C-alpha cells in the first residue's frame, strides 16, 4: 500500500513517527503551515517557520524516504491578530518556492471579519499563483461554517477543483461534494472522523475527489490513521485499486495541479546526510 498523507504537521512529530510512517507505506506527505499552539507575536516568527517547512523538514523526511511538500499561509486563528497580518504582504515571495504545492491552511476559525479578509485575500493569491488552496473548515458550528466557506470560494477567482475543503464529516460532506471542491477528511483517535465512519462515507459518496489525512500535529493525533483507513477499506470490500486512488492518486491529482510535485527524488540513499551542516544524528556517525 502506497500512502500520500495530504495534511500532516511533521514539525510536531518525532523521527520514530517518520520511521513508523515509512514502514506503514507513507511515501509522500504535505505539511500545511498552521497555528503552533503558542500564539506568535511577529511576522518574522512565521518566516522562520516557513523556511523550516521549505528546508529542514523536507530534509528530515528524506532521511526516511518520504517526499515532503508544504502549503504556506496565514492560518485562520492568527489572522485575527494584527501583529501577524503583515504576513499576507510577504506571502507572494514564498509562494513561488518549488516545494510549495498550495496556499494553506486558510479558512475560518471563529468566522470574524478579519478571517473573512484573510481567506478572500489568500484565495486571490492562490489564483494569481495558479496554486490549489487547502481550506480548513471550522470545528464549531460546522454546517454554517462550511456554507460560508463555499460562498467565499464561489466569489473568488479560484476554480472549485483547485480547492480542498478539509475536516469534513457526515454533516458537511453533501454540501461540500455539491460545491465541486475536493473533499478532505481528517482521521483522529477520538474526535472528528474515525476509520469505520470514513469507510461508510466512501461507500455512500464514492472514491472520487476524496482526500484522507491524519492531520497529526502537537495535539492528540496519530500519523498512521491513513494506513488504518486503507486497511478498513480492504476489510469492507474495497479493492486495492480503490485504496490506491484514495490514499495515493487523489492527493497526487489535487496537489499535482501546482505543477510542483516531485515524487521521484526521495530515495533515502541519494539524499544528503546533512542540511546546512546539521544532521538528524546526535553527534553519531
Ligand atoms: Zn492542520
TrEMBL record:
<protein>
    <submittedName>
        <fullName>Hydrolase TatD</fullName>
    </submittedName>
</protein>
<dbReference type="InterPro" id="IPR032466">
    <property type="entry name" value="Metal_Hydrolase"/>
</dbReference>
<feature type="region of interest" description="Disordered">
    <location>
        <begin position="266"/>
        <end position="285"/>
    </location>
</feature>
<keyword id="KW-0479">Metal-binding</keyword>
<dbReference type="Pfam" id="PF01026">
    <property type="entry name" value="TatD_DNase"/>
</dbReference>
<keyword id="KW-0378">Hydrolase</keyword>
<dbReference type="InterPro" id="IPR001130">
    <property type="entry name" value="TatD-like"/>
</dbReference>
<comment type="similarity">
    <text>Belongs to the metallo-dependent hydrolases superfamily.</text>
</comment>
<dbReference type="InterPro" id="IPR012022">
    <property type="entry name" value="UCP005295"/>
</dbReference>
<dbReference type="GO" id="GO:0016787">
    <property type="term" value="F:hydrolase activity"/>
</dbReference>
